[in-house]
Write a structure and sequence with these properties.
The protein has six helices and 14 strands. By secondary structure, it is α+β, with helices and mostly antiparallel strands. The chain has a single domain, classed as Deoxyribonuclease I, Chain A, CATH 3.60.10. It has a six-stranded mixed sheet. A six-stranded mixed sheet has the order 5-6-7-8-12-9. Strands 10-11 form a two-stranded antiparallel sheet. Helix 3 links the parallel strand 7 and strand 8. Helix 3 runs parallel beside helix 4. 43% of the residues are buried. The model has no long low-confidence stretch (mean pLDDT 97). It binds one DNA strand through helix 1. Keywords: Hydrolase, Magnesium, Manganese, Metal-binding.
Length: 259
Amino acid sequence: MKLATFNINGIKARAPALAEWLDEAQPDVAVLQEIKSVDEAFPREMFEDRGYAVETHGQKSFNGVAILSKLPLEDVTRGLPGDDEDDQARWIEATVVGKTSLRICGMYLPNGNPAPGPKYDYKLAWMERLHARAQDLLKSEEPALMTGDFNIIPQAEDAKTPDAWRDDALFRPESRTAFRRIVNLGFTDAFRARTYGPGHYSFWDYQAGAWQRDNGIRIDHVLLSPEAADLLKDCKIDAYIRGKEKPSDHVPVWVELDI
DNA sequence: ATGGCACCATCTTGGTGA
């Protein structure tokens, strides 16, 4: 099974590019972030026509996540547990039913800038809730993964110019510590299980010719539970997508699992 | 040191992002 994560930066602006990539890459499951749309306005027919089940958790203008799947989706839930006051649409879960079932968590983790400040406090509090959900996922001892736009640069090698990110919410020590705490519960960063070394990015800013200079960062991740990590066959970043017409500032990251 | 670009809303400008 091929599963991809893709921050599309707006479904209205990206629908044609997203459809083209789906036709090329043929993922069985696509976990989307920043749909920036309410559920009713999501062009679901475009994807249902391609054989995907469509589950969205949207909101007006900002945020919003979705799961597209060619396999049946069950037990869909929306919202990250732990704060009833939080109305930002950043989390969706579903179980994909294949020859083995897989629990999928799709996230758009808060950016957190400027740091320090209330937005950074929200990011760290959100990651505490993520840690709690991650613990519960592991208790099931079933194949599970958490994927999406983590807005975390895990290591210096995951940025072309790490010094430029030193005080940024994506790279500050507290952010990386919170990410490591979650990984250290027993998750595998799928990309780093397959590829080592610098020069692998999933985001390039629209500004200052970042793509042309390859000034990128790796912030879109797939974290596998031990049971899912045992099924990992491959993980790659479709960086070439960033060079197409009207691209998102993120590109797809995909895993192939023996499911 | 700064801003640069793109998206969204309904506004031709400001909020947000990373």
